[in-house]
Design a protein that fits this description.
The structure is a homotetramer of 450-residue chains. Chain A folds into three domains: 2-110, Acyl-CoA dehydrogenase/oxidase, N-terminal domain (Butyryl-Coa Dehydrogenase, subunit A, domain 1, Orthogonal Bundle), CATH 1.10.540; 144-254, Butyryl-CoA Dehydrogenase, subunit A, domain 2 (Beta Barrel); 262-397, Butyryl-CoA Dehydrogenase, subunit A, domain 3 (Up-down Bundle). Helix content of chain A is 49%, strand content 12%. Chain A has helices spanning 7-10, 15-43, 55-66, 87-97, 103-106, 113-123, 126-138, 260-294, 312-340, 346-371, 373-376, 382-390, 399-411, 414-434; strands at residues 142-146, 163-167, 170-181, 188-196, 208-214, 220-225, 238-249.
């Protein structure tokens, strides 16, 4: 809530946003978190889980709309549909949304819809907007983003192989996708698909296109949903889908042939900030559960409450520091994105992408450990939260790819700093000479052992 | 297999054990690992998962018996039923069993039966042995060990509350248990239950008794199975069970009233070695999957195979070192247990209990990271393996309880080493005096700034 | 320099401060860093090291004054002597000062003088200010702060034992101090001494007083200087000093008897920010040396430059992230101190106190490792920098004391969050009931095994 | 001492070795450790430190000889001069030697003499042995090993540049060396020098030769000694030395031209075991000092002894586990070396080389932290010990070079394990087919959303 905004950004948050933030926090704590297990119960069992539409989600959506909590993610200034928050302001809200599994969807701020709406708003033509952006903005349908493929190293997007071929007035798609998150939901009506329309283009970043494929198009097979540790994440799910001569009108292409890379680049920045802030929220949530546990009067191993034992308060303190540091990294990225746009903020976004999931996982794992058996089970939100966030170290490229990229970028300073240090060393030698001085070197009087 | 036995223990492994070890390895690699997904498929879906008896397990059991791979866990010398292996020798076999989910059961070496069989063999009377030990040894039934309770800090076993009251010729049990592993299996016929028969005894370690309760006794309710990071571990499962005036004949008591602590203490040692060695095996298995992945010719992000990227080979090397170090810690405990018995080996067992799961989790997590999305999904054994081993940092007391205990024990040397160091310091002063020397102290010539 | 100010605070830095920051950066890089080895050479060898006054320091001080770089640490608003920078602004400058060993003294911003000047400015009377603050502000003398004692656990300041007794118009001091940093310098003319004037006061925080003791007072013995790893830090040094009936006029007492705690509390906050930002600077400096090394064309083990080897670029990237996160933690504290004062900022200051040295040590150690032998030797600034910063994990209380304190503070939320979570759980139960739902629990159909 | 030999190797240690081990332990604890500060005091200050021969070392050597503690390092079986201990047995002794700075020299088991004696014993001709090995074995002179060079990446030994050219009946040496450990000692009479005699040989491992150069040969200049975190390690020292047309008789060549690599390979194995075991000893020593500190009745911050505070006992326990695991890694290498020779043991030696220093540094750093200021100062052996061991992560190749090498070696299994796993997967498919089964895949009933 607004009282907890880090001082370093407090003055950049408008009064309106502070008010909304307080409403978000209250909505999440009082409506969404209690509803999370209800959603699970409404999803049901077996195959029914993939045909489910938990009614409580619609109830929450109605409440959220009434409270003015809708589409807050759509950044101020860029879109007329935006409720008018900066990336910083929405980031602070996203942290609260991250404490609940259902809150993002309840406020129409859930991935992958958010990124997909941004793509449509930014790159879609008016017909595409009318058909897909409008119902997405209204929360009437959901969507999926199909990029990752099972048979290649998809951390490198140039490896993508799904074929998009023009035949007459249509595009024909052939290939496979997986980790198509959201494809399990029966309300998921539209796939935004990345594929290769020009695989022989010499520029490996011009081979790709992005195209809109209605979920009910002939030739699409949903093979299965991938599980994350033991969770199926129904009804959302992570689909493994194949395309067998799937035909869509040529007008479904977004922006133009060969512009796929451009589109996904624009899509990733804000989404990473959202994911990062939600993960911060999940970490705060885990820390609060841990605080509950270590003060539980029924849990007194060896005659003392857990908080009085050895390392437990140190876990709390470290978690506090690590969360706070990670949050500042994200907020710094959000501020820079607000001021200078996503392209100028690549470094800061990458820092958040790498640091935040590792931080949240460490905090949640400490909470699991404090809880003992309950921590790994269905009796706390911890294990499920850990599993979800574990995927963020892999999604959109594993940590290591980002670290290598960041290392290379930082290393671009190598030549300049080398020259500076060499110049400094030379100046030292001059100063020593001027002052008729010699560095002290131990043993320099031993000239030899003759 | 025998060729990979660490040199430090090679000569302590009999030729017979080496031969058996090679047979175990072959059986696991060629029969059990391929069967693991078959077991999963045979378990089925929904409620059926808890009524399942995968036929392939019985096929594997028959093969194992034929190969002479049966009850290898039962230590040489202590039991006439033992096939004659030392803890060290079985430990080496358990490592191979740990590579497969089904291998331990296939060779009748699965927890919690192993510990339960040891309890019955060591502390059971002849009638108890005839009724329960015999069919367990034959692999005809399975068993559970009911100790942990949901409402107390069960890392401290003195907190246990399930009541065992004598009424006439019966004991009456009331209370709740959870993490009753194995209780889900329809073949689980017998519960070994720890409770309090004398809650007011001044000696907190004499309040407990252990009693045999057939699974089909009236008054028992299985409420549910606890999940582990989304996995239900069916049909084995981790039961949450209540006892409501459950009555068993007085003759079901093991060893005698008030001897519960003694029994569980004796039970834990070997089991921890088994768990530890199986975890080592799981780590080796994960490392091999990782080696497969990083050499996969189809996975070439940024034009290079994964093994050629940044840190990947360092992960492999670190995993190698860490696994090897952890294995030696376990084998040292096994050797000491063979030579001096479990009581003399508490420190070494505790070291294995703490070090091995942390090591295995780190190795498996690296493999997950190398695999990307497939690593967290059902397409590799990695995520499930990680989840299982994560519980070992909590089961039988969390790491922190063991570390505190080990710290206290090590600290018992505190007084002695303090005296030694003070004596050494004094001797130094004498030597300096004798030699008319002063220690060099920088700045000691500055007597004051007068 | 100003171009590198994190975006999150850019708009809070005045144009004047930005200009000064650029001048500081240039002064440090072009004058101070080249002078560091010259200072070392001028200090000399043996006992002479403690009588030394390296002339180049005075040259740098003159240059700094001319450039307007003097006493920047004294916060805006609080002191008429202040050059007018906020804690945030000076913090950014302190980062640059931290790249050089001599830069802080050259700009009269060196510890412990900075904290001592704050004490005198805040709590000193006019006579005390005239006699000691004025020459300190001018850089004519230096000072030491004497608090830590050799024979007690001084991480807990209530343990302090040096006795301050009033006798007539004088105070008489008896006791020992060590880690009296700066006491080695012949220009150190004044000690600010913490001791006990009322050891029997029931309030353990009212027993202490702070008193001014000229370095040349009779009864003071400087026994020796403590080394840090192998460094003596001459002529500054870390003194081990005893007081034997040292008498000073009663008017030397600061603020009043029993107000020692109040004084040191006020002293610590800004100093910790300064130390933290200087450590950030040292880490950046180490990272630049590392960049030089990994691009050195002469260093090509196994045919490749270091930057092309395995993990090296990942070290660079991690260092970048960790430094940036740590810096934001400090800047957030500085901003809050500017807005709300040091008392409101205890948590944030403690976070910086703990996080920054650990971060800097990790970064510097990576640089040492990249350099090989040169890294641990006198040929780079790395080893010395590491040793200095290692003391910051101990000075003013070890990390663990701060972590425990922070853990306790965070845990104050325990009761409130427990109540919230219990309320949420109850609401969930109501919602489930209202919707006539049951949570799915695996195995819940197994009622028993009758 | 013998009572602490890990059980896993106890039976492999002869009674004679056990007796000697007890004598070593007693000698180290009662004679050497008290003498360590005396050695420091006898070394003196300034230039005198490099001309020093602390008399107490000779006294200790005399005592050691009398106790039969002399040259224990020389492995049984390989040398007639050997006192007859296995690598395992001497390893256990080396651990005790590692607790004291002077103990290795006092028993004539100090590096680099040990490695140099092995080179001479193994590869030297009779004349070389008579002139140099004999006085070294007697402890009459000391030696240095000159390999590392300042201007190249010497972690890759093929980069070495010092030129060894034959001219008539002499070899002429030109070039520079540094980290020539031991070269500071006035008793150091002989350098064993690695250089290039055939820099154009196509085989990069045949370009090098090893040659004996008396320390008093004309043309040698000792420029200075390198410091290690501020320590000069006088009189031993780490020399920076240049060779300017240094001429030695052709008969000084060891083994033959082009055989330098072969010689240094043979030299490294045992030395790494020695270093590792000494580091284990240093870690044990640090742990004991830590135990003293945390039980010091005078050190009671916040009313409790240090051992009662938060994390301290966990530090003790972790240190215990980590030391024990690292020791077993070294002992496993020693056993394998005893059984199969150094060449077969490369992997195990590399594991020890990497794991042990990292472990010892972590343990010592915890002890430093427990001591507070005293830990980094001259008042404990901790800081100096840390600095010495820090160099072991760099000496003979940094950790990263060894990890890459180990990773590559482990990865050689890649093809084989890939084939095995693929075979297992195929067998699974067959089994599923045979049993008419399908894997359960969540969401597999969703064929499409038509």
């Amino acid at each position: 809530m607004s009282a907890r905004i880090p001082d370093i950004v407090k003055h950049r948050v408008s009064e309106k946003a502070k008010k909304t933030l307080d409403i978000v926090a209250k909505f999440v704590e009082e409506e969404c978190i209690p509803a999370d297990p209800v959603v699970d119960a409404q999803i049901g069992e077996g195959s029914a889980r993939w045909e489910s539409h938990p009614p409580i989600i619609e109830e929450l959506k109605a409440k959220a709309k009434q409270l003015g909590l809708w589409n807050m993610f759509l950044p101020k200034g860029h879109y007329k549909e935006s409720p008018g928050y900066t990336n910083l302001e929405y980031g602070l809200m996203a942290e609260w949304l991250g404490r609940s599994k259902v809150a993002s969807e309840a406020t129409n701020c859930a991935a992958p819809d958010t990124g997909n709406m941004e793509v449509l708003a930014k790159y879609g033509n008016e017909a595409q907007k009318a058909q897909w952006l409008k119902p997405l903005m209204e929360g009437e349908i959901r969507s999926a983003f199909l990029m990752t493929e099972p048979d290649v190293a998809s951390s490198d997007a140039t490896n993508i192989q799904l074929s998009i071929k023009k035949e007459g007035n249509e595009y024909v798609l052939n290939g496979s996708k997986w980790w198509s998150s959201g494809a399990g939901d029966p309300r998921c009506k539209i796939y935004i698909v990345m594929g290769k329309s020009d695989p022989n283009n010499k520029d490996p970043y011009k081979q790709q296109s992005v195209i809109l494929v209605p979920a009910n198009t002939k030739g699409i097979t949903i093979h299965r949903m991938l599980s994350v540790y033991g969770y199926d994440d129904a009804p959302h799910g992570h689909g493994h889908i194949s395309f067998n001569n799937v035909r869509v009108p040529a007008s479904n292409l977004v922006l133009g042939e060969g512009r796929g890379f451009e589109i996904i680049q624009g899509r990733l920045g804000p989404g990473r900030i959202h994911h990062a802030m939600r993960s911060i929220g999940a970490a705060e949530h885990a820390l609060e559960w841990m605080l509950m546990r270590i003060n539980d009067p029924k849990k007194t191993p060896f005659g003392k409450q857990l908080r009085e034992h050895g390392v437990v308060l140190e876990w709390v303190a470290k978690s506090r520091i690590e969360i706070d540091a990670a949050r500042l990294i994200v907020l710094n990225a959000a501020v820079k994105m607000d001021d200078l746009g996503p392209k100028a903020t690549l470094k800061e976004i990458a820092q958040a992408k790498v640091l935040v999931p590792q931080t949240a996982l460490a905090v949640i794992d400490r909470a699991v450990q404090a809880f003992g058996g309950a921590g790994v089970s269905q009796d706390t939100p911890l294990a499920n939260s850990w599993a979800l966030i574990r995927t963020l170290r892999l999604a959109d490229g594993p940590d290591e790819v980002h670290l290598q990229q960041m290392g290379r970028n930082e290393n671009k300073r190598g030549k300049e700093v080398s020259q500076k240090i060499l110049w400094q060393k030379e100046k030292t030698e001059q100063l020593l000479k001027q002052n008729n001085l010699k560095r002290f070197q131990p043993g320099s009087n031993i000239k030899s052992r003759l």
